[in-house]
Each structure stands twice: as structure tokens, then as C-alpha cells.
């Protein structure tokens, strides 16, 4: 995990991004925070852990005092959680997350520029989704595929068409759209037995 300082470009109350990345799958999570106080970081980590389970090792370069305060409560719920602290502002010890931070900031900046907005908080989840549905070079799959065991559903045009027609009931789907849905490939992700899981 790492904190990205957005104080020079605050989005209303949000001034920080907590970026968490799984070392094995390259799957990312991001949370907009009002400050870097440990309680906000801990709340976000609790959301992550209760959705995906605790990681085996939580690595941060945000200093022992910082992580100790967060982990004190997390270790009560997950006593086997191991904490590793890298050196602050030392990219070599935090290569994965630092590269992820760079990618996140690049995509987020482009997204904001293209839409002429300074509200990065509302674009954080779409950017993370984009990162998680892009091929990760080290594993040759998208992080989405490895974690969830299926390809991401990217046919937004089809779903937008359903929405534009005001379709809310299965029975109202026109035959042409129903055929497209039926012809959509099932999960043809290669066998990844033992590969799915956070922090493994």
C-alpha cells in the first residue's frame, strides 16, 4: 500500500489516494481520503479485507509509526498479518506500488484533462477498473481475470443500448440483443487452479 499526495489538486474534501496493489495478481484498489490519518487508511483497509480477505503481507513505505497505529487494530482481527515497512521515498524497495502509482496518476491525469475536470475522486474507480482490466505483463492476463476467474465484461455499447431503450425486465429484451448476449463467450479464461487469491 502507498499514499499518493493530492494536496496540490484537492477534490473538495479529498486530498490523498490510498493505493493498494496485490503483488502476485497486480490487482489494484484505490480509495480517496480526506487526510492520511491512520484511521482513514485503516477504514479503507477494513473494507478491502472484508471483501477479499486479508493479505498475508502488508507492505508500506509510510513509516513504522504510521503503520504501527493502523496495524494495531488490524492485527486484532487478522493476527497472522505480517507488516513490512520499506524505506520512505525509496522506489527500489516499493517497485510494484510505485509503478502502479505512476500508472494510476498518468491515467487519472489524462482522464481529468480529457473531461476538463478537477474532480479526480469521481474518476478514481473507472481508472482502477481500467488498470485491472489491462494485461499485466508479468502474468500475461488481466488482474481482473486472475482474481475473479473470468474476463471483464467490456461490451459497454450493448449495455448502453439496453439502458437507452429503457429495458428493465428480461422478458423485454429484443431478440437481436438477446442473441448477442447468448453469443457472448463464456468464461474462456485458461485454468488458473491455485492462482486465484489475494496475496498468494
Automatic annotation (TrEMBL):
TM annotation in the entry: none
Residue span of region Disordered: 165-190
Organism: Rotaria magnacalcarata
UniProt xrefs under PANTHER family: PROTEIN CBG26694 (PTHR37984), PROTEIN NYNRIN-LIKE (PTHR37984:SF5)
Ranges in a coiled coil: none
GO biological process, one term: DNA integration
Protein name: Integrase catalytic domain-containing protein
Integrase catalytic domain ranges (all copies): 1-151
InterPro entries from the UniProt entry: Integrase_cat-core, Retrovirus_Pol_polyprotein, RNaseH-like_sf, RNaseH_sf
Domain of life: Eukaryota
GO MF annotations, alphabetized: nucleic acid binding
Amino acid at each position: 500500500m502507498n499514499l499518493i499526495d493530492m494536496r496540490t489538486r484537492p477534490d473538495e474534501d479529498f486530498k490523498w489516494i490510498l493505493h493498494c496493489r496485490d503483488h502476485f495478481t497486480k490487482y489494484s484498489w484505490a480509495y480517496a481520503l480526506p487526510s492520511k490519518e491512520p484511521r482513514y487508511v485503516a477504514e479503507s483497509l477494513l473494507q478491502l479485507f472484508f471483501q477479499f480477505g486479508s493479505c498475508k503481507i502488508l507492505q508500506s513505505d509510510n513509516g513504522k509509526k504510521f503503520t504501527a497505529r493502523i496495524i494495531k487494530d488490524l492485527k486484532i482481527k487478522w493476527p497472522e498479518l505480517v507488516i513490512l515497512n520499506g524505506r520512505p521515498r525509496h522506489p527500489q524497495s516499493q517497485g510494484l506500488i510505485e509503478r502502479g502509482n505512476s500508472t494510476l496518476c498518468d491515467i487519472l491525469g489524462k482522464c481529468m484533462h480529457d473531461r476538463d475536470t478537477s474532480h479526480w475522486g469521481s474518476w478514481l474507480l473507472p481508472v482502477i477498473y481500467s488498470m485491472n482490466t489491462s494485461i499485466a505483463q508479468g502474468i500475461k492476463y488481466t488482474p481482473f481475470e486472475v482474481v475473479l476467474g473470468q474476463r471483464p465484461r467490456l461490451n459497454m455499447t450493448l449495455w448502453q443500448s439496453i439502458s437507452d431503450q429503457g429495458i428493465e425486465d428480461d422478458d423485454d429484451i429484443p431478440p437481436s440483443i438477446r442473441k448477442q448476449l447468448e453469443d457472448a463467450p463464456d468464461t474462456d479464461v485458461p485454468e488458473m487452479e491455485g492462482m486465484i487469491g489475494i496475496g498468494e
